[in-house]
TrEMBL record:
This is MFS transporter. One of its GO terms (molecular function) is symporter activity. Gene3D superfamilies: MFS general substrate transporter like domains (1.20.1250.20). It is found in: Cell membrane. The lineage of its organism: Bacteria, Bacillati, Bacillota, Bacilli, Bacillales. It comes from the Bacteria. It comes from Pradoshia eiseniae.
Amino acid sequence: MGEPLKQEAVIDVQQKMPKHRPFGLRDKIGYLMGDFGNDFFFLLVSSYLMVFYTDVFHISAATVGALFMFARIWDAFADITWGRFIDTRPASKHGKFKPWILRMSFPLVISGVLMFVTIPGMSDGFYLAWAFVTYIVWGTLYSTVNIPYGSMASVITDKPDERTTLSTWRTAGAMLAGLIINAGAPLIVMVDNQLDANRMFMAACVFGVLSICCYIACYKMSTERLAAPVQAQEKGNLKATLKGLMKNKPLLWILVASLLFMMNTMLMGAVNVYLFKDYFQSAAALSIFAVVQTGAAFVAMPLIKPLVRKFGKKELASAGLVLSAITYFALFFMKDLTGMQFVAVASIGMFGVAFFNTVVWAFVTDVIDYHELLTGLREDGTVYSIYSFARKIGQAIAGGIGGFAIAAVGYNAASTVQTQGTLDGIHMLGTLVPAIVYMIVLAILVFLYPLNKKRTDEMVAELTARRKK
């Protein structure tokens, strides 16, 4: 596995904050509530903001794409800045990460609601400026909550099985939010297959309140058990950190894979609204799609821990990607399906995606451990923020490509019926493109990502022995 760059800098992450209860169901539910709260707004934005901007604010799809791309790049650097900031701050009696979730959740939710505000009589130029300001502010504040939340998993427990469990429960939180947003929101915000501005604002307010409740529950129920000594944090060597990051092959390849996967997920989230409302002419089918997507994930979840224990995270995620790629390639050639038939076939691909989408968070804790193995430095916030950086770049690319792609296939927001060429283009974006991306991510995992089950077990054993010294 390689020798650490600075053996003397090894941090005893087994140092425990005093008088904590054992890891258990309360931690799992608390961690679930964090992503539940995150995704109430994240999924609302990823699924409906582009349509809101094109159909309500009357901003061109290409301009919306440029806004999304710029904002996500800005957010990516905000992630790294915030992660490094947190790593240099001492832990409070309530922990190092979760206090920031509570502090920043209120301004985050307020800025999210403001994105969906419409003011009668304002010009198109006003709405364009309003969109740029509110969206960028919301994205920046999202970093201040999501970075500590994601980093927190590695200090709740250091046991691999328990970390996989946290990853599963985190995904369950995202899926529950997805079920509510994607299944319920179309029925609330769409009128005659068109987005209603007043209903959209009402939905943003409701989901904002729910987000706050979830963040409070995450803060109250989660417990940080592991802590790096303050003096080790203060002496952290930035040069050693950067050198370790560059030599961390698992991190570098999971960054690339996650960038592509997130790009694909965001693109599909944006395109699916157009696919169902224009190609299939059925907002109801979009709701069913969300229910089936969530159901497929919940069917997969109980299988993940035993399958990971037997085969490994890398191996399980790769198998899921094979299934997803085959399914979406098949859907590309099935152009005469109804909306419900499309959902039925796509459910197979969703089942495969669930395996990668769930264990990816456990991949992150592995690469954090690998960073410690290389450098002797325990820098959860920094490493997680680098990972989040890649996801934000993926979102930036997806936001840009999504807007440009919808514009390129000829989508006309002023027309209630799109041309056949536009409809075929939307169908291609929702089927062939995901299939290709899944194949590329699969190739990265199989041929380039080095932490298979055997090497991960060896790493855990080496770190455990080192921490006992």
